[in-house]
Amino acid sequence: NKIYYLILTFMFLELGVQISGSNILYSLFSRGGDFESIIQVYREYHNRFAAAVGLKITALNSLVLGNQIAGQLNLYAMIWFLPFYYKINRELLRANRKIWFSIALFLFIISPTMTSSILLIITLLLFLFYLRISKLNSLKSRLISSITILMFSGFLLKFLFPLFFNNELSDSTKTFFSPEGYAFSGALSYYIFGMLYPLFYYFDLSFFDKIFGAMNPESLWAELGFLKLLITNGALWLLLFFAPIILIIRSSFKLSKNLSFKINSISKREKLLKKWIWLAQVNALICFVNVLSLIHYIVIFKLGAIQLFAFHLSVTLFAIRKVKLLKNEYLI
Q: Which terminal Cβ of the chain has fewer Cβ within 10 Å, N or C?
């Protein structure tokens, strides 16, 4: 709770500073360095939502600095404080979930990114169709969500993915330059090249570099984080790093098999079991969304973001162990 209290509170203060018109954040974080692991500069990003409603603010950067991670942090807070879990986490949260969830949702809406919008859609689908701990995983919720999405599909698509509706992709009068110095007429060709270039780059590497990595991340431009990691660290590192994480997340989601969270538990052991399962699966879900965020940039590996990811992963492992111990005690 305290971690996300801190993140959301400072992001709310950041919003207040921007609305006031102060430039203090730009002056405090104006000098960058050679540290690849840290985002050191407070950057001015175009905020499409703010522009649409007439607010003179840029996209939020958060404590980690960077608009991509800011949107994702709001999504993680929404997952943590979601008020639509079954009554198994009330004692664990000890907070007014609805208020903090509303704050996270408000900050998400006022400073959206396309990456976090895609992650939000995937998360919502998991809540509606897969996670047993979610009250949204019901036929009624699916019908209401489907009808709502159909009714407001035009608005939702324009809000979540404005790039496809504001002629920015088709406008060939604007010139974009890649870090390598290539010039592109229009954003569409720029983004297509940014996605395909690292793929062809990887295929051109030697067999040794494909397995162990080219180890030159600074000179590589890539819109897809997974491909940048594949090129710089190699297929072997990617397999050794992500395979255990995926197995941990999968193991967590399997804990709720043959358990019904709709029925109130009578025994203390079963109540405790469900609480640990909730803790394991919520943290595992945040880890899963972290991994999926690599469809775009690799902000997950920046200072602050990687520690938060590691914390959620460690809590997931601890909760899985607790669940297995409780199940073994019952069998004995």
A: C
